[in-house]
Amino acid sequence: IYLEKVILHRLVMELKTPFQTSFGTFTDKDFYIIEAVDNHGSRGFGESVAFPAPWYTEETGHTNHYVMTDFLIPLLLEKPINHPDDISERFSVVRRNNMAKAAVEGAVWDLYAKRKNIPLSKAIGGKKTKIDAGVSVGIQPTLDKLLAVIDNYVADGYKRIKLKIKPGSDVDIVREVRKHFPNIQMMADANSAYTLNDIDTLKQLAEFGLTMIEQPLGYNDIYEHSILQHQLQTPVCLDESINSLADAKAAVELGSCRVINLKIGRVGGISEAKRIHDYCRQKNIPVWCGGMLEAGVGRAHNIALASLPHFMFPGDISASGRYWHQDIIKPEVTVQNGEINLPEQPGIGYSIDWEALEAHRISKQVFT
Ligand code: OSB
Ligand code: MG
Hints:
The protein contains 13 helices and 15 strands. It is α/β, with parallel strands linked by helices and 368 residues long. The protein has two domains: 3-117 and 353-367, Enolase-like, N-terminal domain (Enolase-like, domain 1, 2-Layer Sandwich); 122-351, Alpha-Beta Barrel (TIM Barrel). It has a seven-stranded parallel beta sheet with strand order 5-6-7-8-9-10-11. The protein has a four-stranded antiparallel beta sheet with strand order 3-2-1-15. α1 crosses α3 (98-116) and α9 (245-254) runs parallel beside α11 (270-283). The longest helix has 19 residues, at 98-116. It is globular, with a radius of gyration of 20 Å. The two termini are 15 Å apart. Magnesium ion is lined by residues 189, 191, 214-215, 239, 261, 290.
């Protein structure tokens, strides 16, 4: 692949409704669409998934922009690329900044699959023709509101509901939701809101048949989660703690979790996500695809990743309309009977809706 230029489109998109987690409330996304153009005029697209504030990990839209423009894009344009799997090695001179790396690598993956005239899912080894859709439900102002929101998602066919919990908004909430929805596949995500002192609360949640509890302890922790998992019946799923294959190995070997949430941005790209997927498959640790409130381009990458065989649970991969009034891709992502069909077009399989993208764009920069 001989790249001729990289274009950064900065977009601001307002969420349909604010999304509340244990650490803060999101109202909009300010992020970048990365467009890579090669010497044939083929174009690939990636999306930076960091949030406007460093609440979930240390990265933000601003740090993504800085690292991409000062380091990653020059490295990318420096010499031709044999295969997208080589990019993570080339970027390894930059420490961490995984979401910035993944955004740039993602554009090259899309371009590579388009040049081969195959869907991205096939380019990375995916075999599924459809994937199961789940939905992450933010913390709601009242229990009635929460039940009404879940009711709508159940009616839309979502196969798994994830509840956001935090101290003071946990056991009672989960009990009530389970009472109203006795049969739904349900899990809880704490986004690091607890400590080992809360072990009794976490044990109480086991009564309500949660398929797993996500990231209960420190965002950087692997050791204390191993202590917790050895005392907890409910499988622990790690999200924030897993930023690389090395982290996944440490967590699995120490028994810190029985499930891993894989996010392309958090681990630095599709290539590293595949390596973690393959390792977890060997170790019999199921994975599923997490979400970052993505717009259409990032959503399309997630759909492709989740087509790999060891994605064993519905992901936080929902319809475009779950977050956006108008997405930036055509067609938009839709959920039918709780499933999303893998697109069959080359690359990410969705076209850019340029009118929509330009409506949300606040600036554009070209690098050669
Ligand atoms: O922990 O997975 C998370 C949203 C913002 C920050 C962190 C997380 C989330 C979600 C929603 O759970 C994922 C999505 O629906 O895209
Ligand atoms: Mg999470």
